[in-house]
Amino acid sequence: MSLPTILVADDDRSIRTVLSQALGRGGYQVRTTAQASTLWQWVEEGEGDLVITDVVMPDENGLDLIPRIRRIRPDLRVVVMSAQSTLMTAVKATQRGAFEYLPKPFDLKEVLAVVARALATPATPVQPLAPPQPDEQMSLIGRSVVMQDIYRIIARLTTSDLTVMINGESGTGKELVARALHDYGRRRAGPFVAVNMAAIPRNLIESELFGHERGAFAGATTRVAGRFEQAAGGTLFLDEIGDMPPEAQTRLLRVLQDGEFTTVGGTTAIRANVRIIAATHRDLRQAIRAGTFREDLYYRLNVVPMRLPPLRERVEDIPLLARHFLNENAEGAGSVRVLDDEAMARLQAYRWPGNVRELENLMRRITALHPQESIGADIIAAELAEASMAAPGEGAGGSAAETLAEAVERHLRRFLASGQDGMPLSDIYDKVIAEVERPLITMTLAATRGNQIRAAAMLGLNRNTLRKKIRDLDIPVVRGGA
């Protein structure tokens, strides 16, 4: 039985040598070339069991070869390599029929694993999509290993309508990923409709999603189409799905199960012709344990889970992102700002509780407020300090994306756990309320510079009640405030 033959096309001699040696040691026969035309000739002659090709070659783009190879030899798998390492490259490679996309520089162990998997996987028919039209300068930027994994997942998902659950901290780009899945997918000719569950009053969520009929409730003077109808033929992005109230969760589950819905006050079933992409910054498994999120709905939504890494887990992308945002804002500023090496090091040492959105806002601020073209570490340090004072970051094990309720829950869990170590727990309610009241009143008084009338109004308390709490909680008050 002859050994499988791998055809390698790359105009970089060192790449050809490294791959030839690694594949040879792996038990494969290898033929290498620097020309796309030679590779095509070998394919036409029936040579090879697998193709590994670069994208940019002297005589032809490797991506253009893939559909031609698939037409004459549909059983021949093609693996694409590229130093461009962008989302667009991964999408084009996948949609033209590549088995896998490998960004350069690649890990040889990964190459061998991909080759073994490709040779063991039966070939399947591929229906190439029309070339994607969106702007190639995508907002998803990064060449880190974790971002390359995201690009490959997105590329694979553009050829299907599978439901996707995106999990990530605030500011990591969850909506950008959802838009990429839509813009490069099979439903891109249809609408992309985004709805933020956390921004809709609980009593309006069902009407917002499914629409309502005239007279369905007080104030419903006309029929209104919901987001499911508006997104027909396209993609419905349900952001902050963890904030959906239980009754709406039940209706959404029914829609996902039955593939149809009725408007509020309606009786006629409407087909749900949408692709669902959900996103959350919450731990939904924890929400399931707490009884605030339905487990059966979670599994319906979590068909393909995607985790977006926080910026602190891909610091190597920070220079690329920073330059991109500076260039974006250069037109209004008259010139492009440049970060010196120390400034860039300062950015990479920062924790970025607000993630990419925080970095983008910082670059906008620098462009607007600092006229000098070269930005040093002193400016970065001052701007980050100012931002930290305005909006404190993680601290004490928390998260910038953490809500007040989540912070309270986290501290209560720690407090209650202390009772399991022999510490007596009694009068918990009064103790917890006091723990919350003291900093709340102290900070409100600080915000009003000690003005108790204004503080009482802000807190919604009677002035005498506030005075009693100040006395009981032994809160120092600075008199003579504005």
UniProtKB/TrEMBL annotation:
Locations listed in the record: Cytoplasm
SUPFAM superfamilies on file: CheY-like, Homeodomain-like, P-loop containing nucleoside triphosphate hydrolases
GO biological process: regulation of DNA-templated transcription; regulation of nitrogen utilization
InterPro entries named among the record's database cross-references: AAA+_ATPase, AAA_lid_NorR, CheY-like_superfamily, Homeodomain-like_sf, HTH_Fis, P-loop_NTPase, Sig_transdc_resp-reg_receiver, Sigma_54_int
GO molecular function annotations of the record: ATP binding; phosphorelay response regulator activity; sequence-specific DNA binding
Primary location: cytoplasm
Record keywords: Activator, ATP-binding, Cytoplasm, DNA-binding, Nitrogen fixation, Nucleotide-binding, Phosphoprotein, Repressor, Transcription, Transcription regulation, Two-component regulatory system
Residues that bear 4-aspartylphosphate: D54
Positions of the Sigma-54 factor interaction domain: 140-368
Cellular component GO terms held in the UniProt record: cytoplasm
Domain Response regulatory: 5-119
Job of this protein: Member of the two-component regulatory system NtrB/NtrC, which controls expression of the nitrogen-regulated (ntr) genes in response to nitrogen limitation. Phosphorylated NtrC binds directly to DNA and stimulates the formation of open promoter-sigma54-RNA polymerase complexes.
Protein name as annotated: DNA-binding transcriptional regulator NtrC
Organism: Komagataeibacter swingsii
Lineage, highest ranks first: Bacteria, Pseudomonadati, Pseudomonadota, Alphaproteobacteria, Acetobacterales
